[in-house]
Design a protein that fits this description.
Layout lengths: L9 E5 L4 E5 L3 E6 L7 E3 L10 E6 L5 E6 L6 E7 L2 E8 L7 E21 L2 H4 L4 E4 L7 E6 L2 E6 L4 E2 L4 E8 L3 E10 L10 H17 L8 H13 L31 E2 H13 L3 H14 L10 E2 L10 E2 L13 E2 L10 H15 L8 H15 L18 H21 L5 H18 L1 E2 L4 E2 L14 H4 L8 H14 E2 L2 E2 L19 H13 L3 H12 L11 E3 L4 E3 L5 H20 L12 H10 L2
Antiparallel strand pairs: 1-2, 2-3, 3-4, 3-5, 5-9, 6-7, 7-8, 8-9, 9-14, 9-15, 10-11, 11-12, 12-15, 13-14, 16-17, 18-19, 20-21, 22-23, 24-25
Helix pairs in contact: 3-14, 4-5, 4-6, 4-14, 6-8, 7-8, 8-9, 12-13, 12-14, 13-14
Length: about 625
């Protein structure tokens, strides 16, 4: 099996319904149509070319490429330079044409460049070899591939059969243009009409640029923040409002390991955190759309609430393995679906309530069903929060009383009470405030190691967890509270590897999985935020600057980073990595503007309660 490009070698293009990954060598090695969670037609990133790929590159093996996105867009421009000339390839997925298209426009810049196209369509994660045939197409060339419910029509230079794939060779001279367009459609329908490439390129570029221009990211990280905001929008499904955690499945957290998961679904946690970030930068419409998705997805009995759903709110995300795929770099199994949808994770209630409270603060009006839904969730939480859960990291070991989950329960009751006090909503504020203080007291009694001066991962352990950094973010304690500073010291001592943070020590066996993993990028961005909030601005900027060296050439981040191998690991692009990047940049911006006496993050509870707690040391 030929070696696949590294994870960081891929750029993404998307149409707000799905996304394609394009390697630096010009191959599209991952594409699912028509949705992020549809079966793939190109899956070479998880195996080799036999799983499906679409190559477009100069024939000259010495050709050199540089690439970038057109400013503020997901339109990818690659400039190829050869001994005979130079040409650019513009790749994008049209936003306004409601069909599922991939456009690859080749334009000559100078001289003449000979390109090779090689197409190998394999539907259903590489399993289905389609029936492929030439078809008449209004005087042009078109190749039709059909397999089961799926069909694609590829227009452009004439493709000829070549060992279970199809190839074409064509020359592009300076000023010349050649368009290649792939269109997916249900196989029982007639092939769609051609795309107007000029018009769709203009409209798609204008839409992305207009969306990006609606926010003014903080300096000096404006470029990285804007790209991250664009990633979050690109991972948001236009029709449903669902936000996928990543565009891929089973890209490994560890080379050759088993920690390979399908992230093409909507986690309540990740989506809520994404909405918080988008609202911070003025994107209130997206918050309203996601709230609509939430109302539809979790409608019904609150006891049936799941931690994650499909893009349309689908509930059954059955996990199964694809043994026929060798996995990226040999990491197996390759999984589709995610069994974590059956897990109990109490933190999601806090993250949802924090996000919806933030929407109120941002001026997003409550709809007729929004607050009743929140009250129903809180009623269920009141009756059940004392049970253990699987925690933010979705462990597959025994359930525990995770401190992070407990703190998010605290946040849920806090935001609910504040909704009544600050916005005049109807609800039992006194009861929620009493529960909030009960949760706080329990955490301080059972989840804090006074001898070491640190919060712990879960009750009954001395282990720490990087998710504890969120305690200051939600206002459970101040960023500069001595207990928080002690927790940071313990996290730095136990979880820091080459200056970056692990999520937790896998050696403890808490997650029930074999093997180890690399530093988790979101956790390190959380540490930047914590440093900035507690007055360690120099440490915050130093760590931030280092983390930003890990983005690839077009500004994308995956889930983890292998410092020894200097490579990205895990599914990509990862929403959690990009949203925590934005939060970290915002925190540094706040700290720089505030000066030496940096303002702590906002806390929950009354000022009197906080002052009394600090005075008592509790």
């Amino acid at each position: 099996m030929s070696e696949r490009p590294a994870i960081e070698d891929y750029a993404m293009i998307g149409d707000l319904h799905t996304a394609a990954l394009v390697s630096q060598g010009g191959s599209i090695d991952w594409l699912c149509m028509p949705r992020f969670d549809s079966p793939s037609m190109f899956a070479a990133i998880l195996d080799d070319d036999s799983a499906g790929t679409w190559l477009l590159a100069p024939e000259d093996p010495r050709a050199e490429a540089t690439r970038e996105y057109l400013p503020g867009t997901f339109v990818l421009r690659t400039v190829w330079t050869t001994a005979s000339g130079a040409a650019e390839v513009i790749e994008f997925m049209p936003l306004h044409d409601r069909r599922a298209n991939v456009v690859r426009r080749v334009r000559g810049l100078r001289g003449t460049v000979r390109f090779r196209e090689r197409l190998r369509v394999r539907f259903d994660y590489g399993e289905v070899i389609p029936w492929v045939r030439q078809v008449p197409d209004r005087g042009g060339n078109a190749l039709l591939a059909t397999g089961g419910p799926d069909a694609v029509l590829v227009r452009g230079p004439k493709l000829t059969a070549d060992d279970l794939s199809h190839t074409a060779v064509f020359d592009v001279a300076g000023g010349g243009t050649v368009d290649l367009v792939l269109t997916w459609f249900p196989s029982h329908r007639e092939p769609p009409a051609p795309v107007d490439v000029d018009e769709e390129l203009r409209r798609t570029t204008a839409w992305w640029a207009d969306w990006a221009a609606r926010s003014e990211p903080p300096s000096p990280y404006d470029r990285e923040v804007q790209r991250s905001l664009l990633v979050l929008r690109a991972l948001t499904h236009e029709d449903t409002g669902g936000i996928v955690a990543a565009a891929t499945t089973s890209l490994p957290e560890t080379e050759g390991g088993e920690r390979n998961w399908d992230y093409r679904y909507v986690w309540l946690r990740d989506a809520a955190l994404t909405i918080e970030v988008l609202m911070t930068h003025g994107y209130r419409a997206e918050a309203a759309e996601w709230r609509g998705w939430l109302l539809r997805a979790i409608a019904g009995d609150p006891s049936d609430v799941q931690i994650m759903y499909g893009l349309g709110g689908e509930r059954r995300l059955m996990e199964y393995e694809l043994p026929e795929l060798a996995g990226h770099g040999g990491a197996r199994p390759v999984r589709v679906g995610n069994a974590a949808y059956r897990q109990r994770q109490w933190d999601i209630f806090g993250e949802v309530m924090v996000a919806l409270h933030g929407a109120r603060e941002a001026g997003v009006a409550e709809g007729p069903f929004s607050w009743p839904l929140q009250r129903a969730l809180l009623g269920f939480l009141e009756e059940n929060w004392r049970q253990p859960d699987r925690g933010i990291w979705e462990i597959r070991g025994p359930e525990q009383h995770f401190v992070h989950s407990r703190a998010m329960v605290w946040a849920a009751f806090d935001r609910a009470a504040r909704g009544v006090r600050e916005f005049g909503l109807d609800g039992p504020a006194e009861r929620w405030e009493a529960l909030r203080e009960e949760v706080r007291a329990e955490i301080l009694a059972k989840g804090f190691d006074a001898e070491r001066n640190t919060f712990v991962q879960h009750y009954g352990t001395g282990e720490v967890d990087a998710s504890l950094l969120q305690l200051a973010q939600i206002g459970f304690v101040d960023a500069d509270d001595p207990r928080m500073l002690g927790t940071v010291a313990a996290i730095e001592e136990d979880l820091m590897v080459d200056g970056l943070l692990l999520r937790y020590r896998t050696q403890s066996g808490v997650d029930g999985l074999a093997g180890e993993e690399h530093p988790f990028l979101a956790c390190s961005f959380w540490l930047v935020e914590q440093y900035a909030g507690s007055g360690r601005l120099a440490d915050a900027t130093a760590l931030m600057d280092r983390l930003l060296t890990f983005v690839n050439d077009v500004g994308l981040l995956s889930e983890e980073y292998d410092t020894a191998g200097a490579r990205q690991m895990g599914n990509t692009p990862q929403a959690l990595s990009h949203l925590t990047l934005v939060r970290a940049a915002d925190a540094i911006d706040r700290a720089q503007k505030a000066g030496p006496a940096s303002v702590p993050l906002v806390r929950g509870g009354s000022e009197g309660e906080q002052a009394a707690e600090r005075a008592s040391g509790g």
